[in-house]
Amino acid sequence: MTYKVLVVDDSSFFRRRVTDILNRDPLLEVIDVAVNGQEAVDKAIKLKPDVITMDVEMPVLNGIAAVKKIMAQSPTAILMFSSLTHQGAKSTLDALEAGALDFLPKKFNEIAQNSEVAGSLLRQRVVQLAKKGSVSKLNVGRDSQAAKGSQGAQPVVRTRSIAGEQGTSSHSKRTASGKKYSLLAIGTSTGGPVALQKILTEFPQDFPLPIILIQHMPQHLLTHLRVGLIPCAKSV
Predict the structure, then answer these.
(1) CA atoms within 13 A on the CB side of 144
(2) How far apart are CA 90 and CA 22, in angstroms?
(3) Cβ distance 204 to 188 under 8 Å?
(4) What is the pLDDT of residues 79-89, one digit of tens each?
(5) Start-end ranges of CATH 3.40.50.2300 in the chain?
(6) SS3 breakdown of the chain: % helix, strand, coil, rounded to 5?
(7) CATH placement of domain 3-137
């Protein structure tokens, strides 16, 4: 299987280099490039790539604004690839909050010198995002709407049994030692922080059940979460 990639950068040099680097992996195919954020939005909707590599500083529409529009109109796995997206940077946090799933700092010297280490890391990150599948399958918008309701109404959440069967329920009860416990458990992976933000902010203040959140995140992203969650286990 080949994953489709859209490369977004206002620099013709970086568009060529990133395209060349990604096309070296037999699992990846750069299907097109975009020179600014608005063109990225248009091509994301039209071409529906599996992954987008996104620069930040671009004319017409910057990368972070483009991420917001793409996630609203055609949700796609996005890797921020910019000189501004390094660990702890405001641009990195803004991009992740907008809906990007990962980031890498773009280092001119490494790209210009055709560093195999830098190229291998970029390919690895893109393949990882592609294998997780399209974030459109998360139905973030639908789940957000499901969480809406009148004051005191219980939100509808999607549940999954151990056998993998799906159903719809306001909450679930399991019997253990003769006692019954009611709670809401939410488990998320790709796109989880964005989904959680949309859903939890629309719960009524007097939501009657305790909530357990489980979020799978790559280890290098854990320090960038803005919510007060404590990682319960290392990423595997």
Answers:
(1) 13
(2) 27
(3) no
(4) 999 876 555 56
(5) 3-137
(6) 40, 25, 40
(7) 3.40.50.2300
